[in-house]
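User: Can you predict the 3D structure for this chain?
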Amino acid sequence: MKNRTHTIMASIFTLPFFIVLSVLGRDKLNTPIIISSQIETQAFFEDASDQFADADDPAIWIHPFNDRKSLVVGTLKEGGLAVFDLKGKLIQRIEVMPELEGTPKSRFNNVDIIQLDDWTAVFAVSDRGRDQIRFFEINPWYFLSKTPPLKDVTDTQVPWVFSKSNAELQTQNTAYGLASGFDHKTGSWITWVTQRNRLNIQAVKVIKEERYIRYETLLPSISLPDTFHLNNGKLWSPCLDDDETLPGAEGLFFDVPERQLYIAQELVGIWSYGLDDQTLTLIDKVKNYGIPYTRTWNPEEQEYECEFHYDQSSGEEGQYLEADVEGLTVYRKEGQQDAILMASSQGSSELIAYHLKQVAGSSLKAKRFQIVHMEDRVMKTDGLMAVSNPMTSLYPSGLLVIHDGKNQDVSEEESTNFKWVDMQNLLPYLDIDAN
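Assistant: Here is the predicted structure, written as structure tokens:
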């Protein structure tokens, strides 16, 4: 077994030369802007020695009075949760729930932060295996008490989110992506949850009891479409690799000030859903949207392969997103109306950034970014999260944490991890004041 003790690396390599080349050439060559990350976490390995850890989705908690003690939590699927400090050091590892006979194995998929009051904050985590949401409370005094910062405070009787029976649970069409936020209209904390391989998005109300946290299902739920009317009068549906799934969503972001839910339907594009008017709007599409295709069964892979016929385009495809569309986050500086919606375009391993004021208008423009750490390009990104709060001298304009699904590790084994990016490096290219 190779030695897997890795050093956290803080990069001083900012790639100014490559950034200049990229900015000068992006209009002519349509190339992305290259941005360097400052920190990367240790590598995680999807094998028995590392509890089958597969990094997926991050969330950031900002400490109420000491920003240096803020935390980042990342899901590791069957490997549980990883808790990091702002320097990317692993300070706690939480295992998934114990196995139960006749029940699928616990698997932590997505995570978001819920600030219940000034002192009480929890990370909400979707357990894809158990079809539940779990809650981990943060001890803000962890650095003084020398104790682990997170503890599980989930009520023992929390229900399944989507399953109606154990037979349905076994299909694993379960809780997948999630996003949380305070709904000022109802005075409640709401967590939105997508259903794996299905079109449903369910809202649950988060309820804090004296010692535990539970949730209740709210109605109505959102249902995404799977068939689309094109301008040429034809119908189009995304090409799926099997007949048992539907083109579902994972990435979500709940924009609290605007009461908008942003949804990444992986093979379609990005939707906005207005909580007040319950209007579902497709604000950007993937590059093969509306493109006819030939679907062929591959017996070796036991799945269908899709060949798209771009010469038969109806002209309705998107310019920026390459399926799958995964994580979503919104960056908004305090006191400013404009905000940036960022999406991970997994098919191109790029970060796509939109001005929300343009998303609401008739002309959609976006910037494309590639994130690198030294010579390690961030690839196959699932989740990401950005905050605008200044945190230490390292992140004066906030922090972006992004999942790297193809980390380059010194062990030369396949691994995943998370990268830290100073938002001040991105803001000049987004026409937002970085100071």
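The first strand starts at residue 9 and ends at 10. Confidence is low (pLDDT under 50) at residues 1-29.
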